[in-house]
Amino acid sequence: MSDPRKASAEILRRDQRSDRSLIHCWSLADRQKAGYYVRDRVLYRNYKYLGQEYEQLVLPVNHRQEVMKLAHEIYAGHLGAKKTKERIKLSFMSPTIASDVQKTRESCHQCQMERRVTVDDRDFGSVDVIETDQFQQPELLPTNNFFVTYGAL
Ligand SMILES: [Zn+2]
Question: Which of 24, 35, 104, 131 has the fewest CB atoms within 10 Å, counting from its CB?
Answer without folding.
Answer: 131
